[in-house]
Design goal:
Oligomer: single chain
Structural class: alpha/beta
Shape: globular
Strand content: 15-25%
């Protein structure tokens, strides 16, 4: 695919960033996209590798036909490439911006550390598709008369809604928040993905017949059983929002917060949405400590710098990973290696092999984080304790599963959970233990990537289509 000798003649080129000193002054996206000519050259690097691991199970959860649309871009047929991309991925402008690109790690050229720049090509295709008017609503020509309720308007719910609407079903999406997007809108900062991309997709879905109902908190002001009675099927796509507790004393101190409370508040602020009743969480002029080493923690780091933090330190209990992985041991799988996010590159201090022992304070307010070095079993080493100064602390060590005090509590024991407290359903039919109720995305599989949510939403849509009509032409 691409140019036969392209990978030998053309160097890998990546999108550049605005300088950190400039980008921390605003919350807009700061990547500088490649132009069309540069994108075509990058697509030309896709080699005829025989077995394209990039779009197999190790590379792309939605099975994007990466070599095919790379070849089309190289040949200059962008419109057909856009169609090909959308045949597997409903929202490539989302994944092109926020996906960590396991496809690039699985690329054959990554054996030499020069993978095809798949992510940039994907983003460019989606953006050009909208700019040229190639991406338009596709309403179903015939309606089935069946209605489906989807709980949650995150990427899983939106993908399922679009697929089912195009299959001819009447789709109603019930969302707790004032706008659609889930953690794409309220968790991921605008400097990683601006929210007008979500608004644009919502308009497309509405033109395809999807109806959004905002302010509906299922399990609080609406019951899932009532939704099931009013609809022929229900898909639960409510996400995994319950934060994982670090289990240390002092979280009750003023200045200590869950990461998502902090990110949601700032995203509402940037989006011009009304503030909640919670007290403002603001990093300006403060020494900030973020507990956790993942993407959510990194988002807190970037947000704190943009709010004017004096310093930001990130604590990671894991040992510092190797700078370079052993390709022969892990390729084409996702490797553990030292990575620096754009937010961390803005000036964060990173502490590895560091356990959080307690949050300390004076007069009810946090003043520091007590830490210790850990051994290979993550057990604190005696005598290695130290205290980091902190005026603001965010706990960002992931999510334990879906909220348990809303629709799950309301269902009694009708909605069965798995051993990790996620809603139990398999990936064959996505059925839960409740009649007519299906589950997809983080609520079923646990905390995961946007691309996995899109995959599960698409597959659950096919399962529901088969459930309602006995067959389905939707792709799996």
């Amino acid at each position: 695919m691409g140019k036969v000798t392209g990978f030998m003649e053309i160097d890998r080129q990546e999108q550049k960033y605005q300088p950190a000193s400039d980008r921390i002054r605003h919350f807009r996206e700061f990547t500088i996209p490649l132009n069309d000519s540069e994108i075509e050259r990058q697509a030309a690097r896709c080699m005829d590798c025989g077995i394209p691991f990039c779009h197999g199970p190790t590379g792309c959860p939605v099975n994007n036909q990466i070599p095919d649309w790379n070849d089309l871009v190289y040949q200059g047929d962008w419109e057909l490439a856009v169609q090909n991309l959308h045949s597997t991925n409903n929202f490539p402008e989302f994944t092109g911006r926020v996906c960590p690109a396991p496809c690039e790690e699985a690329c054959t050229l990554n054996i030499e550390d020069i993978p095809v720049n798949i992510k940039s090509v994907e983003q460019a295709l989606a953006d050009k598709g909208f700019a040229e008017g190639w991406i338009v609503p596709q309403p179903a020509p015939i309606k089935t008369g069946k209605t489906v309720a989807i709980i949650g308007a995150g990427p899983a719910g939106m993908a399922a809604a679009q697929q089912l609407a195009r299959a001819g079903h009447t789709v109603h999406v019930y969302e707790r928040e004032p706008k659609a997007g889930g953690l794409l809108r309220y968790g991921i900062p605008d400097f990683k993905m601006e929210k007008h991309y979500i608004d644009r997709r919502v308009e497309q879905l509405e033109a395809e017949g999807v109806t959004f109902h905002y302010g509906v908190n299922v399990g609080v002001n609406e019951s899932m059983e009532d939704l099931a009675e009013r609809h022929d099927a229900v898909i639960l796509c409510a996400g995994a929002e319950r934060p994982r507790d670090p289990g240390v004393s002092g979280m009750e101190l003023e200045g200590c917060h869950w990461a998502m409370d902090y990110l949601v508040q700032q995203n509402r602020r940037v989006g011009g949405e009304p503030a909640t009743n919670a007290a403002p969480i603001w990093a300006g002029g403060k020494h900030v400590v973020v507990i956790g080493g993942g993407d959510t923690a990194s988002d807190c780091v970037g947000t704190a710098f943009r709010q004017g933090a004096l310093s930001v330190t990130q604590l990671d209990i894991r040992p510092i990973p190797p700078i370079k992985e052993d390709k022969m041991a892990v390729w084409p799988y996702w490797p553990t290696k030292f990575r620096t996010s754009s937010s961390q590159a803005e000036g964060a201090e990173r502490e590895f092999s560091a356990a959080t022992l307690a949050l300390v304070g004076e007069e009810g307010r946090v003043t520091g984080v007590k830490c210790a070095r850990v051994d290979e079993k993550r057990i604190p080493i005696e005598g290695s304790e130290f205290i980091l100064r902190a005026d603001l602390v965010m706990a960002a060590i992931g999510f334990s599963g879906p909220l348990l005090d809303t629709y799950i509590a309301q269902s009694g024991k009708k909605l069965e959970l798995d051993g990790r407290t996620n809603v139990k359903a398999n990936t064959n039919d996505y059925k839960t233990s409740m009649d007519k109720v299906f589950a997809a995305g983080d609520v079923r599989r646990g905390q995961s990537l946007v691309v996995w949510a899109i995959r599960e939403g698409r597959q659950a849509a096919r399962a529901v289509d088969e459930f309602l009509t006995g067959k389905s032409d939707l792709p799996r």
